[in-house]
Amino acid sequence: MWFYEKWLARANAGVLVSVLGLLLTVALAYPLAARLPIAVQILAHMGTLIFAVGGVKIAYVARLAFLSKLGRPVH
Questions:
Q1: Largest Cα–Cα distance in the chain?
Q2: What is the pLDDT of residues 11-29, one digit of tens each?
């Protein structure tokens, strides 16, 4: 069970990091776009897609899987 606890902690950290990265890239891509060069804007838009699709969703599904393996309620 300690194995699942360790991976649950990593999945929770992954969700947190991904959400923070998503907030940062959205801030760079939209409200701060006028102050940034086009290359940074492009990277910010790409980062938004990567964090939203890749980071948050995958980490959250992993979190749900480890909660299920530990017998805890999955919301």
A1: 50
A2: 999 999 999 999 999 999 9
Measure CA of the first residue to CA of the last residue in the chain; give whole Å: 20
Which residues 6+ apart lie within 8 Å of 60 measured at CB?
11, 15
pTM of the model: 0.86
Q: Are 56 and 19 in contact (CB under 8 A)?
A: yes
Q: Structure tokens of 25? A: 């890239």
- d(CA 37, CA 28) in angstroms, rounded, equals 11
Domain boundaries, the chain: 2-69
Cα atoms in the 13 Å half-sphere on the side-chain side of 16: 6
